[in-house]
Amino acid sequence: MRILIAVFAVAISFVLSVFFLRLPSLYYMLIVLIATTFLSARYPTVYVCLLIVIYEKFFETIDLGIPHWMFEDITLVLLFCGIVVQLIKNHFLIKNITKNIYFIYMLLIIILVNLSTFFSSVFVFGQTVNSVLFRTRPFFLYFIFVYLFLANISVKNISKIFCFLTVSSLIVAVLSIIDARLLGGGKIFKFAMTDGVSGERLGMSRISTYSFVLSWIYFYFLSVFKYSINNKDRILSIFCIFLIIYQITFVSMMRQLYVMLALTTVVFVFRWHSNIKKMLLCLFSVLLVCTILVCLFNPTIIRESFFYKIYDKTNYEAFHTSKGSIAIRMDGIKYFYSYFKKNILLGIGVMSSTFRDSPVRIGLQRGYNFADLGLFSILYRFGLTSILLIVLILFTVFKDLKYLLNIYLNKEKNIIESIFYLFICMVILIPSSTIFFKDNEILYYGILFYFLYRFKFESTRYKTLGNS
User: Fold this and answer.
1) 185 — alpha (psi -120 to 50), left (phi > 0) or beta?
2) CA nearest neighbour of 197 among 206, 210, 188
3) DSSP characters for 194-229?
4) How far is residue 135 from each of residues 103, 113, 205, 295, 354, measured CA to CA in Å?
5) Which of 41, 44, 74, 39 is CA-nearest to residue 148?
């Protein structure tokens, strides 16, 4: 019931924000200030949900008359307003946050990003300070960890936030399927074409929004199916799993995410059924079914199928240097390496694409998109230090997750296991991943850090209850 109230409150806040945008800016700012103060102090869980909705640009559905890049800035401003409110509420007591390992990691990421940008971009590559001054601001969204810490969000409230993510992701999945398959695209998610969608793929509308949360929730339902003893819950989880798979495969059409989820699901199955005979039986069954399908279907029908088209397109892109996107990315990796050599330790920093001599600008003119280089974009941008930091964070994350999976039960265990497989998914194809350093996922990494900290903080009580 409380989750429904939270979702309703977020919806009301959204409607009010759209309405008040029509008012003079002074009145709008005053109303936003009052609403921010009230929600962030009284209902921090709802406030976090509201920040997520704004961060996701209201799921690309309604034109608020502002550029898309500004949503991150609005989220950041509201986040720091909420932190100030919590500081006042707590009488400026930080509660030993500086001793928290995830807070330290968060600060190290922000320090590294700014150090790389201002040292490399300005002193090595000669960019002006003004051109890079605000380029690193998305990384300050990691301070969602500080807000959650000051608000003292409990495991119970974490479950509420996660419930909001679950419900909203399923709604987005259903609506995007309706939009792409029944309405032709661009009717519900009107502005997805400008952020998250690259036109059409293979003659079908390609809508991609909320992908990070969708993949996270996919692993949650896998965990529910694994641990639930209620048949209704297991049937519902299977339905939700196939719903998300359908959305990612036939609507988002994100090959990288699809492969990552598929490989991680294999890891999930192997960890679930460790018995070799069962695994061999499952593998033999899958191969047998595939063989029968290939024999029964007409080859023409197979060549016209979506999966064959994806395979054919991927094969083409991998081996055609002049046009294939995969081959172009490989050339981009070679091209940007010449700039990376100038500062291997800190990289080239976050550069402005509008600056005349910027490597990013020059690369774009030659057809190389720096943002498409996966892990190499992190390495080149923030140097070897960033890779070492990623390894260190992942070591801590998996160490804590392994510990927590042996402590918690029921719904909390499902959430923890979903986080575990989410990170497995990121690691499994890490050359194409931008883990911890991707602009449009920073808010979620801050939330994940807090979830892990809070579960570990309260694990003593669960351990005591488990032993009693």
Assistant:
1) left
2) 206
3) GTT--SEETTEE----SHHHHHHHHHHHHHHHHH--
4) 22, 10, 32, 55, 12
5) 44
Q: What are the beta bridge partners of residue 204?
A: 201
Scanning 95-154, the segments in alpha helix (DSSP H) are: 101-116, 129-132, 144-151
Q: What is the DSSP letter of 251?
A: I
CA–CA separation, 378 and 389 (whole Å): 11
Q: What letter represents residue 66's amino acid?
A: I
Q: Are 380 and 340 in contact (CB under 8 A)?
A: yes
Q: At what angle do helices 144-151 and 101-116 cross, to 10 degrees?
A: 160
Domain map of the chain by residue range? 1-93, 156-272
Q: Among 324, 272, 342, 430, which Cα is nearest to 438's?
A: 430
pTM metric for this prediction? 0.83
Q: Which of 74, 72, 78 is nearest to 37 (CA)?
A: 78
Q: What is the 3-state secondary structure (H, E, C) of 221-275?
A: HHHHHHHCCCHHHHHHHHHHHHHHHHHHHHHHCCHHHHHHHHHHHHHHHHHHCCC
Distance CA 59, CA 417 (A): 26
Question: pLDDT: is 94 or 378 the higher one?
Answer: 378
DSSP 100: -
d(CA 383, CA 345): 5
d(CA 186, CA 122): 41
User: Which of 332, 354, 449 shows the shortest CA–CA distance to 135?
Assistant: 354
Q: How far apart are CA 261 and CA 219, in angstroms?
A: 9
Per-residue model confidence as pLDDT tens digits over 103-138: 999 999 999 998 888 888 777 777 777 667 778 888
Strand residues in 426-467 grouped as ranges (E): none
pLDDT score of 179 more than 70: yes
Both tokens of residue 404? 């927590």
164 close to 157: Cβ distance less than 8 angstroms = no
Both tokens of 92, joined, read 């400026």
Specify the DSSP class assigned to residue 431. G
